[in-house]
């Protein structure tokens, strides 16, 4: 692996890390363009200087007791950002007048961590009432949870405001499906300003994830997937490794609807490259996991990452998380600062 360091105009450091034939550019933490530009490091330094410490200390303490919460908070942040941007709309409850919220959509039925975010928000509210948004609490908590289990950390500029609308139908339409092909995934990510490489690296979060047998039953029982082609560009993902599939049917998924499987068996509480190794061995559980090897460039990036020190993956994952955390954010006078993350403030 060749690595060089130089400086861009304006003094922003840039590391160019070569993974096989692929070059990944890791930029500094500056966020540009529209509302993103209004996010900044230290946003609460004067208005609530203890905010980030409060979030970090509580999350680290809780993850220390229940390590699986790291994956839960990361997934909660991810699902939030894909619908109306990172505005904490995933935290809102459905209203009594028939307004079904995001959290009631099928893809969100297995989300966890709502209570933890409520508790952290309560601590922050006690210190600084009406100052820190639920969206910022969630973004910070996801970062701190990953770092707490030994994963990467990344810079989280703050200043997000909370949305006042949450729609189950929008969640159904916007959250990536585990059955999507690579072109479908890439297209959906592009609508959020996320690149193909963001898709590849954000998928790496599955290293600490679990999957319900029902979410990949077609691959397990029906041989879902195709053989692929020599160039790796067939959009039909390869089937699950036969021996692995047989083992899952015998031990974990005896029926199509029940059971849970670690997406990175053997190290699902360690943030590492095990998930990518599994994908390359055709042991990625979801069709969307297996789809990563159907794109030649994505496969080259994964192969290069697996052959490189873990720090390389940490860098690119952190960069993509920073990009995700700035998707369609509300800042300035847009949105509100919710006092209770589950309900909008009175007057909306």
Commentary on this structure:
- The chain has 348 residues and is mainly alpha-helical.
- The chain folds into two domains: 40-176, Peroxidase, domain 1, CATH 1.10.520.10; 194-316, Peroxidase, domain 2 (Orthogonal Bundle), CATH 1.10.420.10.
- Helix content is 39%, strand content 7%.
- It contains 13 helices and five strands.
- It has helices at 51-65, 69-81, 114-127, 134-148, 168-174, 182-191, 196-203, 217-221, 242-251, 274-280, 287-290, 296-306, 310-324; strands spanning 3-7, 13-19, 22-26, 210-212, 260-262.
- The strands form two sheets. A three-stranded antiparallel sheet has the order 1-2-3.
List the helices and strands and how they pair.
Blueprint (H helix, E strand, L loop, with lengths): L2 E5 L5 E7 L2 E5 L24 H15 L3 H13 L32 H14 L6 H15 L19 H7 L7 H10 L4 H8 L6 E3 L4 H5 L20 H10 L8 E3 L11 H7 L6 H4 L5 H11 L3 H15 L24
Helix pairs in contact: 1-3, 1-4, 2-4, 7-13
Anisotropy-based shape:
globular
Main β-sheet description: 3 strands, antiparallel
Secondary-structure-based class equals mainly alpha
Distance between the termini: 54 Å
Number of DSSP E strands: 5
Sequence stretches where pLDDT stays below 50 over 5 or more residues: 1-33, 225-233
Give the SSE string: EEEHHHHHHHEHHEHHHH
Q: Which CATH class of the largest domain applies here? A: Mainly Alpha
Percent helix: 25-40%
CATH architecture of the largest domain: Orthogonal Bundle
Radius of gyration: 20 Å
Strand order of the largest sheet: 1-2-3
Could you say what the CATH topology of the largest domain is called? Peroxidase, domain 1
Binding site for Ca(2+) 1: 80, 83, 85, 87, 89, 102
GO cellular component, one term: extracellular region
Keywords: Calcium, Disulfide bond, Glycoprotein, Heme, Hydrogen peroxide, Iron, Metal-binding, Oxidoreductase, Peroxidase, Pyrrolidone carboxylic acid, Secreted, Signal
Site (Transition state stabilizer): 75
């Amino acid at each position: 692996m060749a690595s060089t360091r130089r400086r861009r105009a304006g003094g922003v450091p840039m590391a160019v890390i070569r993974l096989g034939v692929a070059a990944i550019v890791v930029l500094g933490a500056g966020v540009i363009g529209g509302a993103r530009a209004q996010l900044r490091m230290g946003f609460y330094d004067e208005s609530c200087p203890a905010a980030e410490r409060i979030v970090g200390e509580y999350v680290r303490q809780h993850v220390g007791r229940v390590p699986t919460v790291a994956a839960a908070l990361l997934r909660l942040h991810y699902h939030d950002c894909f619908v109306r941007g990172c505005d904490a709309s995933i935290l809102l409850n459905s209203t009594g007048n028939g307004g079904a919220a995001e959290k009631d959509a099928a893809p969100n039925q297995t989300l966890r961590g709502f209570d933890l975010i409520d508790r952290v928000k309560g601590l922050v509210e006690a210190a600084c009432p009406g100052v820190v948004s639920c969206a910022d609490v969630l973004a910070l908590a996801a970062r701190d949870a990953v770092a707490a289990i030994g994963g990467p950390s990344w810079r989280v500029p703050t200043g997000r405001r909370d949305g006042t609308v949450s729609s189950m139908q929008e969640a159904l339409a916007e959250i990536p499906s585990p059955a999507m092909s690579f072109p479908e995934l890439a297209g959906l990510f592009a609508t959020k300003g996320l690149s193909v490489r963001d898709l590849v690296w954000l998928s790496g979060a599955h290293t600490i994830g679990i999957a319900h047998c029902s979410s990949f039953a077609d691959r397990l029982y029906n041989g879902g997937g195709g053989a692929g082609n020599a160039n790796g560009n067939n959009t039909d993902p390869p089937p699950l490794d036969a021996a692995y599939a047989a083992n899952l049917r015998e031990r974990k998924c005896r029926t199509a609807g029940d059971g849970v499987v670690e997406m990175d068996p053997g190290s699902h509480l360690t943030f590492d490259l095990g998930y990518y190794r599994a994908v390359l061995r055709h042991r990625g559980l979801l069709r969307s996991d297996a789809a990563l090897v159907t794109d030649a460039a994505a496969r080259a990036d994964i192969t290069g990452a697996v052959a490189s020190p873990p720090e390389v993956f940490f860098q690119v994952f952190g960069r993509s998380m920073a990009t995700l955390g700035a998707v369609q954010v509300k800042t300035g006078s847009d949105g509100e600062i919710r006092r209770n993350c589950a309900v909008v403030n009175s007057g909306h």
